[in-house]
Amino acid sequence: MKDTGEKPEFCCFGVIDECHFRCRMCYKWREDLRIKGRKRAELKDWKRAVLSLKEIVEEGFLIHFGGGEPLLMEELWELVRFSSQQGFSTNVATNGYLIDEEMAKKIGDSGLTLINLSLDSLQEVKHDYMRGRKGAYRKVMEAIEYLHQYAPEVKKGL
Question: How far, in Å, CA of 51 to CA of 63, rounded?
Fold first, then answer.
């Protein structure tokens, strides 16, 4: 293969497949689509992946942590902090439902570069319908407020 000199700008680590929503456009929540007995990678495995990636990309390279719902991964903020300390930019995409005051503080302390919150409509009923969970709209709006307050240096996207 011919070397074009172009380098990748980001990669996505699918850190978790589980999700607590029932989104109309995603089926991560469906039990029948999960691989039975599949073991989730441990934090040490993800850290090893970060270090191996560091060997082949330049500083500032973006690691996107996705899922399912990545905030369900207990060690997520430790992994984000570790990746940031290794010189990577970091991004998390979330439905925002789990972001309360405490979670927003963890996010602010983690070194996260960017957080993307899912917002499908400014109409509460439509957003909740798309996400398959009543109250999803209100929770994402609260998450935005908490992030502004406790993680002001983290870039936010919708």
Answer: 12
